[in-house]
Design goal:
It is built from 16 helices and 15 strands. It has about 525 residues and is an alpha+beta fold. Its EC number is 2.7.13.3.
Length: about 525
């Protein structure tokens, strides 16, 4: 990964030397790893940011052809100008730098598109601690940022929906309680009702619900209370027939209902019935909801001579129920969008009840864990899969987060349930308190980072192996060159003496390069 326009020929010579000194396999291994590494990698070999080596993965990220190798970064990628000063400062200081979710404008056919990357810069130094190269690796994290943004937006929207839902639900419960109280009082009043007209008038006028008595086949209003009048404001009711006072209901199924009540003695009840009724006489009709009771009123001879009508307007309660239904639909939609986002980003979500350790999770987490059981996975089962070398530390981090109400971030290994494969997991979470209910919850996300961890280990092993394997033949070569230089020191041929001096200088330069590998 340290090839450059100056160092590339030298590295090829090193590979050639090692191949001659061993089995000839190492050179192909080195080139294959350098050229086919899945990590986007390039090497700057001068303070002017010459690109000495760039692999295919980095070319794809930058949308550049292979011909950029050997050129200066500012010559073929001027859109990356914000990074020029950073890289030159790194060259001068010789310090490592790690950037997380760093934005960079990438040129796609003349259009600059902002992408986000995790970037690592590692200067390579010689024995004199002078920088001779900077190794840069990058990983595109657009999907990660998108998933975070989706999660944040959905959580805010979900909270707002839940808040509205709670408010509407409280209103509905309050309305239902009032209706229950009214019905209880009404039943008690009806059970005590006598044929005494005076008692009847007092009962109707004092009833908490809207009550009216309509007499005769024309359903003439004889008495009604203020609550009933408030349902039909701006109308004179006493002495008028029902369909005269409420003309909008004439010709509706209610005519047959009242006919059956009066002529057949059949009581009727309607709950949350939609009625197109004007707020005042002669006004435009609007949709209103009522709960009605129509009871036959009989005289002393047992003959029906009127209808007792109880009416309660429940428009606000019905609208509240409709709002709750809409909010539930919206909440379900938010949850579907959240599930889609986490599935696309391959993010498992989990929630732990702090006291009982009850575990909830999505399908992505079950797939990552390889869990295929018919029963839901428990917290104990999940922890049981963690490798012994990580379990105690992981439990300690979880307990600290729950006790202190803070953040949780863990990197650990565990076995998959279905195939026993050992995987690396990155799990993050937070303990939070619900603003409405006050309940404490511990929730977060988990991602399979096995590939990233294995690639990092392979990269480190490769650098160490290459550096050590090159050092042995180089030491032998250096000894031979020094002996040859001593023997040719008294040679009368000045060209031979100069050639040996150059050979000595080159072997020292190669030694510094290898030591640079070892110091990474």
């Amino acid at each position: 990964m340290m090839c450059s326009y100056v160092v590339l020929p030298l590295l090829k010579n090193i590979v050639h030397l090692v191949s001659n000194a061993s089995t000839g396999i190492l050179s192909s291994e080195i080139l294959n790893i350098l050229r086919h590494s899945q990590d986007a990698t390039l090497v700057y070999t001068s303070r002017e940011l010459h690109v000495g080596y760039i692999n295919a993965a980095m070319l794809r990220i930058l949308n550049k052809p292979e011909s950029v190798e050997g050129q200066r970064l500012e010559d073929f990628a001027p859109e990356l100008e914000p990074y020029f000063s950073i890289l030159k400062a790194l060259w001068d200081k010789g310090e490592n730098l790690v950037l997380k979710e760093s934005p960079a404008d990438i040129d796609f056919n003349g259009n600059l598109v902002t992408n986000y990357f995790d970037i690592e810069y590692h200067p390579v130094k010689n024995k004199n601690s002078s920088t001779i190269a900077i190794i840069c690796t990058a990983r595109n994290v657009n999907d990660r940022l998108f998933a975070k943004q989706v999660l944040t937006e959905k959580e805010v929207k979900e909270f707002e929906l839940i808040k509205d839902l709670e408010k509407s639900n409280d209103e509905l419960i309050d309305t239902q309680h009032r209706l229950q109280s009214i019905n209880i009082e009404l039943r008690n009043k009806i059970e005590q009702l006598s044929r005494n007209e005076q008692f009847l008038n007092r009962f109707i006028m004092e009833a908490p619900a809207g009550l009216a008595l309509m007499r005769g086949p024309e359903y003439i209003y004889t008495i009604h209370n203020a609550t009933y009048q408030a349902i039909l404001p701006g109308r004179k009711l006493t002495g008028r027939g029902f369909f005269d006072a409420v003309a909008a209901l004439k010709g509706t199924p209610l005519e047959q209902v009242l006919h059956n009540v009066y002529h057949k003695g059949m009581p009727y009840s309607f709950s949350e019935s939609l009625v197109a009724l004007a707020d005042y006489e002669g006004g435009p009709t609007v949709d209103r909801y009522f709960t009605f009771n129509y009871l036959p009123w009989v005289d002393d001879n047992g003959k029906v001579d009127g209808i007792l009508n109880m009416a309660v307007e429940v428009t606000e309660a019905v609208k509240a129920k409709q709002l709750i239904s809409n909010l539930n639909d919206a909440l379900r939609n938010v949850n579907r969008q959240l599930e889609t986002a986490t599935t696309a980003a391959k993010i498992g979500t989990w929630q732990i009840e702090p006291s009982s350790k009850d575990l909830k999770y999505n399908n992505v987490l079950a797939k990552i864990f390889g869990y295929e059981g018919s029963e839901s996975m428990t917290y104990e089962q999940a922890i049981g899969q963690v490798l012994p070398g990580f379990k105690d530390k992981l439990l300690e981090q979880i307990n600290i987060a729950i006790e202190n109400g803070g953040y949780y971030n863990a990197l650990y290994q565990q076995k998959r349930f279905n195939d026993g494969k050992v995987i690396w997991l990155r799990s993050t979470g937070q303990v939070s308190k619900d603003r409405l209910s006050g309940e404490i919850s511990f929730s977060g996300v988990v991602q399979d980072v096995t590939q990233q961890q294995e690639e990092e280990q392979r990269k480190n092993s490769f650098i160490g192996m290459v550096s050590h394997e090159l050092k042995t033949p180089l030491t032998s070569l250096n000894s031979i060159v020094q002996v040859a230089a001593l023997k040719l020191k008294k040679s009368e041929d000045p060209w031979l003496a100069g050639a040996m001096d150059k050979a000595t200088s080159q072997t020292k330069k190669m030694a510094r390069l290898i030591n640079g590998f070892l110091n990474i």
